[in-house]
Design a protein that fits this description.
Elements (H helix, E strand, L loop, with lengths): L11 E4 L1 E6 L4 E8 L7 E3 L1 E6 L6 E6 L10 E14 L5 E13 L2 E10 L8 E3 L8 E4 L18 H4 L7 E5 L6 H12 L3 E5 L4 E4 L6 E4 L2 E2 L5 E4 L6 H14 L2 E2 L3 H8 L1 H10 L7 E2 L7 H7 L5 E5 L8 E4 L2 H13 L4 E5 L7 E8 L2 E9 L14 E4 L4 H13 L4 E9 L2 E8 L5 H7 L3 H12 L13
Parallel strand pairs: 1-11, 3-10, 4-9, 12-13, 12-17, 17-18
Antiparallel strand pairs: 2-3, 4-10, 5-6, 6-7, 7-8, 8-9, 14-15, 15-16, 19-22, 20-21, 20-22, 23-24, 23-26, 24-25, 26-27
Helix pairs in contact: 3-4
GO molecular function: ATP binding; metal ion binding; ribosomal S6-glutamic acid ligase activity
Organism: Rhodovulum sulfidophilum (Rhodobacter sulfidophilus)
Protein name: Probable alpha-L-glutamate ligase
Length: about 475
């Protein structure tokens, strides 16, 4: 029997049905049946799934708090305190997970144990048994709602977000490099917040395509449900990695960066077309397939010096500075001879081998650094020997960085800007930005800010009153 640290006072009266709330679980209003014939209390739950280490097991589940409203689902998680065999009134036995939660009735609150079971066919989504009542509670079996009546309207307002607790999340980091700085930081920060974070090798995932039950499998088993997926998709597995993300999107998992934005950001031509569509300033860029257009291609970007860039270049690789027209023609001919797809771009000389990396999380620039190339190198990439220092950006640079990330629908993006005479120009939008350089140069907990965004996104949303699942 659960000990009552704040027992109801003598004469605290309950009817055979009462309105209750379970704030620990983010359930501000539920109608419960008070049944002194039942020993244990039970909560309607579905998609019940244990997770976490064996030393500190947890369980995640979802609740339909309003009978008949399956379109409204509240995700919950709690520590497992026991697993118990429960026999129902019809004689059926079932092993159930037991959790502890605080119940609030009529302004009074006390801790109770709850068993989790599917009560979808029941008129009451919660059963309050005698173990939860204590000897000082008076139950009037002929009375209904002796305590104040609550309302399901709370689930149709923004207050459902306000009352949602900071529940434990199960998060997947899609990465083929579990020991690099970014992946290791994502795991460490998530676990420090109490979440369960698993690194999943993107290339070892495989998918079941089914209209009724699409799934992602891994190492011979179906992957569990995740609250969120943080993609760290390398350039070499972009096509397969984005297919895996699309599968998670199909299931309904929140993905920090979606497949569409990652795919577009990796194709330099597609990326610049998106920037142009959204009227976002960038260096003048040209593309052609025919070798007969080389001269016109060079003239479109203002002539030499110019940049020749492979469409799928990363970390500064496949990027060449052609300082003369003859050099540009030679580089273009060489790339065409290799059947490589490339574009040419105006060289912004005044940038002097420097660019600004703006790290966007959600709808804010949370940090910025100035990257300077190695001696004699026009490329400022840290992977090419460049170095970084923190920098203060202008309101215009901040606005253009946020607009660029939003254009690709990315919630985590590294937006690279060049400072040109006529204003900032977006050089690239990176959907899998490295976190080491920006965290060390800024001194900020960037990963913590990302988790703030994830926790905000996966909290329950209000549901319109008239909505029904068809």
């Amino acid at each position: 029997m659960t000990e009552h640290t704040d027992p109801a006072p003598p004469g605290f009266r309950l009817g055979w049905e009462e309105w209750v709330s379970l704030p620990d679980l983010g359930l501000p209003a539920m109608k419960a049946k008070v049944d002194t014939g039942a020993k244990t209390s039970a909560l309607h739950a579905f998609d019940i799934e244990p997770f976490g280490p064996a030393s500190r097991p947890k369980v995640r589940f979802a609740v339909h708090p309003i009978p008949g409203r399956e379109d409204l689902s509240i995700p919950c998680s709690a520590a497992i305190v026991d697993r118990r065999e429960v026999t129902s009134s019809n004689g059926d036995s079932e092993w159930r997970y037991v959790i502890a939660a605080e119940i609030v009735v009529g302004g009074r609150r006390w801790p109770i144990d709850l068993t989790l079971t599917h009560r979808g066919g029941m008129a009451y989504r919660m059963l309050l048994g005698r173990q939860a009542l204590g000897e000082d509670v008076i139950v009037s079996p002929g009375d209904s709602c002796c305590q104040p009546i609550l309302s399901y309207d709370v689930y149709h307002s923004q207050r459902v977000r306000e009352v949602a607790p900071a529940r434990v999340l199960r998060i997947a980091v899609l990465s083929r490099e579990p020991h690099n700085y970014s992946t290791a930081r994502l795991v460490a920060e998530g676990e420090a917040r109490g979440h369960v974070v698993e690194v999943i090798d993107t290339a070892r995932c495989y998918m079941l395509l089914d209209a009724l039950a699409p799934d992602v499998h891994y190492d011979g088993a179906r992957l569990p449900r995740f609250d969120a997926v943080i993609p760290r998709i390398g350039a070499s597995v972009t096509a397969y990695g984005t297919a895996v993300i699309r599968q998670f999107e199909t299931i309904g998992t929140y993905c920090v960066n979606g497949s569409e934005g990652i795919t577009a950001s990796r194709d330099k031509l597609h990326a610049h077309q998106i920037l142009a569509r959204h009227r976002i300033g960038m260096p003048t860029t040209a593309f052609a397939a025919s070798p007969k257009d080389t001269g016109n291609l060079i003239s479109l970007v203002g002539g030499a010096p110019l940049i020749v860039k492979l469409l799928e270049s990363t970390q500064g690789k496949g990027v060449v500075l052609a300082e003369t027209t003859n050099a540009a023609s030679s580089v273009i001919s060489a790339f065409r001879g290799l059947k490589a797809s490339f574009l040419v771009q105006r060289f912004i000389k005044e940038a002097a081998g420097e660019d600004i990396r703006c790290l966007v999380v959600g709808s804010k620039v949370v940090a910025a650094m100035k990257r300077t190339g190695a001696e004699g190198d026009f490329r400022s990439n840290l992977h090419q020997g460049g170095h970084a220092i923190t920098v203060k950006i202008t309101p215009q640079e901040r606005e253009i960085a946020v607009r660029a990330a939003r254009a690709f629908k990315l919630n985590l993006a590294g937006v690279d800007l060049l400072r040109a005479h006529d204003g900032p120009r977006v050089l690239e939008v990176n959907s899998s930005p490295g976190l080491e350089g920006i965290e060390k140069s800024s001194g900020k907990n960037i990963v913590g800010l990302l988790y703030d965004e994830i926790e905000k996104r996966v909290r329950p949303l209000p549901v319109p009153k008239g909505r029904r699942r068809r």
